Amino acid sequence: MRLRSLLPLLFLAVFTTFSCSQKTDQERAQTPTAPAEGEEVDPYQNIIFAFDEPVAPATPEGRWDTTRYVQFEPAIRGKFKWANEGRELVFSPYEPLRPSTVFVASLRPAALPSGKQKLTLDRSKFHTPLVAMSSAQVFYGRSAQAVGTAELRANVLFNYPVRPADLRPRLALSQGGRPVAFTLTAVEPDHTLGVTINQAVQPGEPLLFTVAPGLKAVAGSQATTAPLTASATVPEQETLQVRELTGEVLDGQPVVTLLTNQPIAVADIQPLLKVDPQVSFSIEAQESGLLLRGGFEVGKDYQISIEPGLRGALGGRLIERFAQGVSFGNAAPSITFASAEKATYLSSLGARNLGLRLNAVEKVQVTVAKVYASNVQEFLRTGQRYSDDEYSGEGEYGGEEASEESDEGGSSYQYYDLENRGDVLFTRTYTTAGLKKQNGLHLLSLNLKDLEFNAPLKGLYVVRVQDSEHLWLREEKLVALTDLGLIARQNADGGAVVFLNSIRTAQPISGATVRFLSTSNQVMATATTNGQGVARYDSVAGTRLRLGMVTVVKDADFSFISLPRTRVETSRFEVGGLTSNAAHYQAFLYGDRDLYRPGDTIYTNTVVRHDDWRTPPAGLPIKVRLLLPTGKEYVSLGERLNATGAVESRFILPASIMTGLYTLEVLTGNDMLLTSRQVSVEEFIPDRLKVTVSAAPTLVRPAETVNAKITALNLFGPPAAGRKFEVEFSLKAKSFSAKDYPGYNFAIQSGAGRSALEDLAEQFQHEQREGETDAAGRGTATYTLPDVHDMGTLTGTAFATVFDETGRPVNRLATFEVQTQKALFGIERIGGLVGTHQDVAMQFVALTPAGKPTAATAQVTIVRKLWETVLERQGDRYVYNSQKREEVLSNKEFTIEGTSKIFFTPTYSGEYEV
User: Fold this and answer.
1) How buried is 27 (Cβ within 10 angstroms: 0-12 exposed, 13-18 middle, 19+ buried)?
2) pLDDT score for 585
3) What does the alpha-carbon distance between residue 634 and residue 627 come to, in Å, rounded to a whole number?
4) Are 407 and 379 in contact (CB under 8 A)?
5) 636-659: average pLDDT
6) How far apart are CA 215 and CA 232, in angstroms?
7) Res. 632: pLDDT tops 60
8) In this structure, are residues 47 and 41 in contact, taking their beta carbons and an 8 Å threshold?
9) Rounded to two decimals, what is the model's pTM?
10) What is the pLDDT of residues 191-224, one digit of tens each?
């Protein structure tokens, strides 16, 4: 018996009937001609062939036949059964039919009963729906190029996933007959592909989307032969609109989708959104709307309402109250497990219930198979698709050749022979109504006796839940039924430490047998957990085996942990911890200091303990050695531990020893490294000069002079006469703020949105003065400030360097302040988003450099920033490029006395600067 995994399908199954009978040539001539591609069928349905007479005995209920009565081109995997007293042949595929594909069906006479070999199919062709563009959505989003601005976006929706590379050369946008520049932003195939509009369009007017012929779906074989068109109206940015409200079932869970014309912050909508009847739900923000997940139930109607006044993230406002009903009554059939895909472990001491989300499914067939412990690692490594006994015949349905992958991007299905890895324990059929229900989930209870839990052969369970009538509708899950919870930590040398606790009580479990398996499924070691539930494995030097899995058995319980599947990425965290070694000793090495001169003596102390903190026996030999900066051994001392497990060591450094970073190491008697630390040996000499520098005056204005006065003294007090000195003068911007005006911005900004003083270092080059100290050890350097104005407050620096008799420099610096303005202007901070046609109050203040209010005249300019799209040539092609242009809206002088206010009313949406 073999099992196979398929994706859960969330679509309603529909039945299509084909007429099959023995007809004369005259009867066939009178039959209406079918389209060249045949009839259209849904990708998610069973196919029924009807005959005028009984052909074979009806198949017992719940049974399917693996005999291939019909040959399909392209091949379709599935099973057959006879129904309606043998007059109907039902075919149920294992996977959805390939999209946008024409299929040819023909009877296989060899598979029909005797006397029925001459039956034919009148309609031998059928096809799935061709690629279609269902709709287009237009909305606003945050611009990625200009922060704080909006850009127009669109989503193009198709009935199948489409490759962006196939759509890009065929898609065209237009408004009023004029082409519209755009960029296709999608990079992965999907039903919905995103587009960014690159030029201004007229709000309130429709935007036409046209796709030229030749578009194919992913995994589809038929391309479109006619243009696809869709249109959507460009919304107003100033008004928040709810474009669509739908309810659907995603992965078995009811979800409400709310689409708007611009993003909405979750915090803004929470107090204004109501659901009737009340249910608990969470809100997830999307690119152009919201998702509501929670306690919604299929079959119930809900009223969703939003109160007026809601603000969008781009300034739009909801004018009227929105209210609309939503339901999930027509949910497509689906089968999903409630737990996450990677969730594997289920406590054997609990209720042993698996939660299922079943929608529009009347009966389910449950198959449970056991993969034996010795095969678990190979089974997990091979993949997560499992086979059953669907086909063992020849041709495309042959057992080991049942793997295919088309060049058109189709799915790949691989089959595994469970007979060589385990056994199917049971297969049962349950009615959905007969399963217990709790919190919207159907509960599948697992019985220990049915699972052969106490049998000597342990293993991993594969649970498959399948619709009894629609074979493509199924879901599989791996289940490890156990109360043994494992945590494994692998060391850098290949060893591991295992912690075993009860899943139910979290208490350590002792006396369990732990086996360490290599990646090639070889037993590397066996251990037993101690009282703390811990078992260790120490790697063996030179072994070729790598640890791959850990299994544990305690009485009738069995558990495992696969290291590759459960590895936790720890590169972001300090998780190195303490590493054990074969000697099971830990050493702590410390000294009197970390920095030494040549000629000093290094004193160290070493403390050694067992891994369990026991003191080692007195007299235990160890080695303490000192390594040169080159890595070579300088000296090695043989020591013996005292009764406290410690030993003192000393190393004498000759005056001629090389400088650099030395390494102290502690080793066992057989040269196993226990610990190490580094010390530095450096030759350092204190400064021979004492230097002071001061700047006078400390507060200056442009074009004035600053004197840097230097005093240099020798180490023992006498003046340092005749010493060369250098003084470097520089200017940099100094930020200004007033504690009495915390909400004001005094920074000087350029039109590019950055500080106008960022390039100050390039405007004023550093100037250097040189000289020699006089007999009293004094020197003076003079600097005349540049005649600059309206640059705020600057900080000047006089960096002085005096050289001793050996040429060794001694550095000191002094600072001074430059005031380029008598009055400093500030503007009160304005919110990032304001509404159009609304007065915006702008508060200004004029302060002295000391932070006191004053009167001054300022020039206030209001600029609107516009982004325009131009057509540029790059090589042999033309591209659209966005360029910024500034439009001056107002420019006038304004007298500010302390604090003053002016008003401005923006007419258009966009970005403004004051």
Assistant:
1) exposed
2) 93
3) 5
4) no
5) 94
6) 21
7) yes
8) yes
9) 0.52
10) 999 999 988 899 889 999 999 999 999 988 899 9
